[in-house]
Design a protein that fits this description.
Length: 233
């Protein structure tokens, strides 16, 4: 059976996805090879917090942000094209919170909740303790890299995949499924009872978040999730 011909838009989108995949995996595997050294550098309090934060942010942005940014620049696409709009923001955020409820329950019931701390990464405490203006600028960088770009990254990739492989069912979205699976693969999880629960609730959270984005056309729910849920628990 002959495969259907790709439209010019689908061909362009396929190239975009390859760019994003190559950049993301390139940085990820680079981190995998030097992960211990980079982590030891980042948590070394004898070194100034500025280079430690920049290295940490550079790796994070390389994995979740650099690829989509390159594509948007190459295609001359504005970020607003992918749902960064005012309309339906409250609906998008509310729907995203609902999607994350099973994951939040898992964190609490499994005993992993040790306080609500938005933008919590390896160097957050050191950044806050560094004083003005480094603390302010550092927290802004953390919010942009670990909050905005991590959430926006999923929104862009999901839309690109859905354009390349148009879903036949409203609730069965290939882009959302792929992003949810990659989220599980990119984060360390174990094969145990709670590990399996984490995988399922993570899948539901990311998939639901992206379906909400698709239904509302608003990506701020994705950004909210990584600013105030994922990196806060």
């Amino acid at each position: 059976m002959d495969q259907p011909k790709l439209t010019p838009e689908q061909k362009k989108t396929e190239i975009d996805l390859w760019i994003i995949l190559c950049v993301t995996l390139g940085v990820f595997f680079g981190y995998a090879l030097k992960g211990n050294q980079l982590r030891n550098f980042v948590i070394n309090t004898e070194i100034s917090v500025i280079p430690r934060l920049l290295v940490n942010a550079g790796v994070q942005f390389g994995i979740a942000g650099l690829g989509v940014t390159i594509v948007c620049i190459l295609r001359k696409e504005k970020f607003t094209l992918y749902g960064l709009r005012k309309a339906d923001t409250i609906k998008a955020v509310a729907g995203t919170v609902v999607s994350f409820l099973p994951y939040i329950c898992y964190i609490v019931i499994s005993g992993q909740f040790h306080g609500y701390r938005p933008f919590s990464i390896l160097v957050t405490d050191d950044v806050i303790a560094s004083g003005f203006p480094i603390a302010v600028l550092g927290m802004m960088l953390i919010a942009v890299v670990w909050g905005f770009f991590e959430g926006f990254n999923y929104a862009v990739i999901c839309e690109k995949i859905s354009k390349r492989y148009p879903p036949k069912n409203t609730w069965l979205d290939y882009g959302a499924i792929t992003c949810a699976v990659f989220c599980i693969l990119f984060h360390s999880m174990n094969i145990s009872f709670w590990g399996m629960v984490e995988m399922v609730t993570t899948f539901l959270a990311i998939y639901g978040m992206l379906i909400v984005k698709k239904q509302t056309g608003n990506a701020w729910g994705c950004v909210f999730a990584f600013c105030f849920i994922w990196n806060a628990l």
